[in-house]
Design goal:
By secondary structure, the protein is α/β, with parallel strands linked by helices. It contains ten helices and five strands. Helices cover 57% and strands 12% of the residues.
């Protein structure tokens, strides 16, 4: 069985960039946010339940999820966030495991934004890698994205696990603040070689 890595980090931490770099090193990436987007796209299997729960106002004209409208709801209402997660997370988890089962390499990386908050996900992985940065860096990066205001970024950060909680579950941490892409890739390459050693040791047991 491949070594299973949980990759996580706060919004704007550079987690997606790290995932792309790990893929180039040879990791099989299972992107749970991409799965969520597929489930809530036009014709997505999650949309009937989401519309029934939250109303048609959260759907675009093509039937896909209006992520901005949904984000505004869940950031302001913790109960709504819990209800949405109860709908989506079982579907996301099932598809993620199917994708992992199809992997041919010896390392599978599950890219999971809410891994810290999920006991289920922590039990599914062998190691946790956290991409970390300061809150100031998070705000600066995400504010540059289309449609994001400083207030929206701050609410997104507040809705996620605290930085200390992420670090507490980490087996490895890459601090992505004040470094360039080459330095980030070098740090990830070091972690990658460690995973290769662990994966090989598991095969030899």
């Amino acid at each position: 069985m491949p070594l299973r890595i949980g990759l996580t980090g706060g919004i704007g931490s550079g987690k997606s960039t790290a995932a792309a770099m790990l893929a180039r090193h040879g990791a099989h990436i299972v992107d749970t946010d991409a799965i969520a987007r597929h489930l809530t796209a036009s014709g997505g299997i999650a949309m009937p339940a989401v519309r029934q729960t939250f109303g048609d106002a959260i759907a675009r004209a093509d039937g896909s999820l209006d992520r901005d409208a949904m984000r505004a709801i869940v950031f302001s209402d913790p109960v709504a966030k819990t209800r949405l997660e109860a709908l989506l997370h079982p579907m996301i988890g099932a598809q993620a495991l199917r994708e992992a089962a199809a992997a041919t390499g010896n390392v599978v990386v599950f890219d999971v934004p809410l891994l810290t908050e999920s006991k289920t996900w922590r039990e599914r992985v062998d190691r946790v890698l956290v991409i970390d940065c300061s809150e100031a860096a998070q705000i600066e990066r995400v504010e540059k994205r289309p449609g994001w205001t400083r207030d929206a970024v701050e609410r997104a950060i507040t809705s996620q696990a605290k930085r200390a909680a992420r670090l507490a579950i980490a087996d490895a941490v890459v601090f992505n603040d004040g470094i360039d892409l080459n330095a980030l890739d070098a740090a990830l390459e070091t972690v990658w070689h460690l995973w290769q050693t662990l994966a090989q040791a598991a095969v030899e047991q």
